[in-house]
Structure formats: structure tokens, C-alpha cells
Write a structure and sequence with these properties.
Mean pLDDT: 93
Shape: globular
Strand order of the largest sheet: 1-4-5-6
Largest sheet: 4 strands, antiparallel
Length: 103
């Protein structure tokens, strides 16, 4: 599973999150994505049968964000963008989602 670490407390999409390392999960839909931080570490994200190994009881933040259309990203890209506000951006093809991050 993809991991993300914060060295201080933040607000992730408005939800308070303590410093630490989390696994990052998404539930993509056509017009919005659900972006999830989970405090358990997993060796793999999805089984060969397509089932997520995530334990929802360990979710610390679950944020729905709208899909935006933007420039083409040929590879799935995760980045922290500073403009117009600090946000975790997930982008692929012409689809991107942004989760605001505040300290």
C-alpha cells in the first residue's frame, strides 16, 4: 500500500490528523473520489481478486473531493501542491483530485 508521513499534526480535508505514517487509499468515482488515511500498514493494497485489504476501523480520515480536469499526466502522480492552497494532489490522465492540507 502507498504510505504518507506527516512530521507534525495537520488537518487533512478539514479533519485533524496526528503526526505519523499512514496508508493512503482512494475510492475513485466519475465525479468525486474518497481519499482515506488509515493508520495500519499493509504489505499490499488490493488482492488479486480485487478486494482491498484496508481495515475501515483503522481509518483516521475519509474525505470526499471533487474530480477536476487538468493537464495530461501519463503516470499516476502523487504530489503536494502549494498553489492556490496547500493540497495533496493525485493525478492521472486528465483527472486530478486535491485534498487541502493545513498545519
Amino acid at each position: 500500500a502507498t504510505t504518507i508521513a506527516f512530521d507534525g499534526a495537520i488537518r487533512f480535508g478539514g479533519i485533524p490528523v496526528a503526526a505519523g505514517t499512514y496508508t493512503l487509499w482512494t475510492i475513485p468515482e466519475a465525479d468525486r473520489w474518497t481519499v482515506i488515511l488509515n493508520d495500519k500498514m499493509y504489505s499490499w493494497g488490493v488482492t488479486y481478486g480485487g478486494e482491498a485489504q484496508r481495515d475501515p476501523a483503522a481509518d483516521v480520515a475519509k474525505v470526499e473531493v471533487p474530480v477536476e480536469r487538468g493537464p495530461l499526466f501519463e503516470q499516476f502522480t502523487i504530489s503536494v501542491e502549494r498553489e492556490p492552497e496547500t493540497a495533496l494532489q493525485l493525478a492521472w490522465d486528465e483527472v486530478r483530485v486535491r485534498v487541502p492540507i493545513e498545519q
